[in-house]
Amino acid sequence: MTTMVWTYLFYLTICVAITIWVAKTLHRYGVAFVTSGHEASAELINAHAHLLIVGYYLLSIGAISFALRYGGKADDATTAIEVLSTKVGGIVLGIGALHFAMMTVFAKMRRAIERRPREVPYAVDAEVRS
Asked: How many angstroms separate the CA atoms of 46 and 3, rounded?
């Protein structure tokens, strides 16, 4: 295999691994951030978060695939490392921007939930009326 093929393989491996790690982190802690103290709507929040993560995967994998073609050509190991770092750096910047966008969405979801009045269980409601 040529040096460029190895560069592509390393690029895809690194970028997909970073994408998966960020998506799992966003889902795990994003849902916990939004649902803390609001377990009644946890199922809906979890579903919404899952849909956001699917969109994140689609955007990230699309950008990784699209960027594969662009950049310099590697004929030796030094050039391959330079090309790889440029490609991975660009994708990491893009994934970082998506991460902050997702955090903004999670923060808006949390604020919307906090503005909603909490449901009072029927037994407690009946005691208050007595």
From this structure: 43
CB 99 within 8 A of CB 26: yes
- Judge residue 95's burial from the number of C-beta atoms within 10 Å of its C-beta, 0-12 exposed, 13-18 middle, 19 or more buried: buried
pLDDT one-digit tens code per residue, 62-121: 989 988 888 778 888 888 898 889 888 988 898 888 888 878 887 787 777 777 666 555
Domain residue ranges in the chain: 3-115
* Helix or strand (DSSP H, E) at 71: none
Please, what is the end-to-end C-alpha distance for the chain in angstroms? 81
How many Å apart are CA 24 and CA 15, to the nearest integer? 14
